[in-house]
Amino acid sequence: MSENAATAIPPLLGDVPLPQNDTDPRREYGIQCSFPAVPASLADRNRRFQPYPATLTPSDLFTVGQNTCSIPGYQFIRKNDQRQMLMFCDGACSNNGWGGNSVVEPRGGCGVVFTCKEIMPNGLSSPLEINGIPHTNNRAELRAVILGLDLRFWPGGGFESLVIACDSEYVVLGICDRLQTWIKRGWQTSAGRPVANIDLWKELLERLRELEKVGCHVQFWKIPREWNEADKCAKQAAADNNPINNPPTTQLLEKILYVESL
Q: Which leading EC class covers this enzyme (predicted)?
C-alpha cells in the first residue's frame, strides 16, 4: 500500500468504548503469565509488523480490551490474540531544523496512546528533555518509542507481543533494516560518519533486548500520519513551555497510576 493511497482516516481506536463485563479467566484463577525468552536473532528478523492484507488498519486488527494483570488495565489488544497489544507513538518538534537567522530554539515533544479516550482523554504527552543535545523530529520520535516501552512492564499484563504503530520512516527503517548494519560497522554509516542520535538508538536497543529476555517481542508498524493517534499528543508536548531536564518516564508513570486508580 502506498503512502499516497492511505488518505482516508479509519475509525479511531481511542473512540472505542470500554467493554462491559469483560473478565479474563486467567485473572480470575490467578494464572501467572510467563513466556520463554525470544532469541535476539529471531526478534531482529521479524521486527517489522506487516498486516495481511496490507490495507488493514489498526481498528481492523485491535480493539479495547482488559489485560490479565492482577491490577486490571485497558489497552489496545489484538481481536484474535489476547497476548498482542498495540500502542501509537509519535514525536514532534517546533522549529525543526532551525538555523541561519533563526533565534527560536527547537522544542521536541513525545506522545503515546495505548488506551481509549474514556480512560485517558488526551493520551500521554511530555516535552523532550533538555540535555544539551539539539531537539529534532527524529530525536522526539525515538524518545516517544522508548517512553512507550518504559511506561509499564508490559509482559506483566499478559503480552508476549507489542506492536509500535508510528508514522516515522526514520524510526521504522532504522530499527528494522539498518540497525544491525550500523552495529557491525561500529555505529557508523556507510559514509564512515557516526550514526546520528546514537545515544537513543542504543537506549532503544537495550529496551528491546530487555523485553525479549522476558518473552516479549516488539514489532514496528509504519502507518500513515493520518492514522497515528499520538500525533496530537506529540504536537501539544512540543508546544509545552515547561521543559524538563530528565527523560519523562517517571512523571508519566505517576499520571497513569493516578488515572487507573479512579
A: hydrolase
- Residues 185, 194: Cα–Cα separation, whole Å: 10
**Checking phi first, is residue 169 left (phi over 0); if not, alpha (psi -120 to 50) or beta?**
alpha
**Residues whose CB falls within 8 Å of the CB of residue 92, separated by 6 or more in sequence, listed in order:** 108, 109, 111, 137, 140, 231, 234, 235, 237, 238
Task: Please report which confidence band the pLDDT of residue 135 belongs to, taking 50, 70 and 90 as the band edges.
Answer: very high
Distance CA 16, CA 116 (A): 6
What is the C-alpha separation between 160 and 47, in angstroms, rounded?
14
- Pairing label, strands 161-166, 217-222: parallel
**Residue 11 is placed in which grid cell?**
475509525
* pTM of structure: 0.87
Provide Rg for the chain, Cα atoms: 18
Architecture of domain 25-260: 2-Layer Sandwich (3.30)
Give the span between the Cα atoms of 216 and 68, in whole angstroms: 15
Q: 147-195: per-residue pLDDT in tens? A: 999 998 999 899 999 999 999 999 999 999 999 999 999 999 999 999 9
Q: Where are the domains of the chain?
A: 25-260
Helix-then-strand count for the chain, H and E: 9, 7
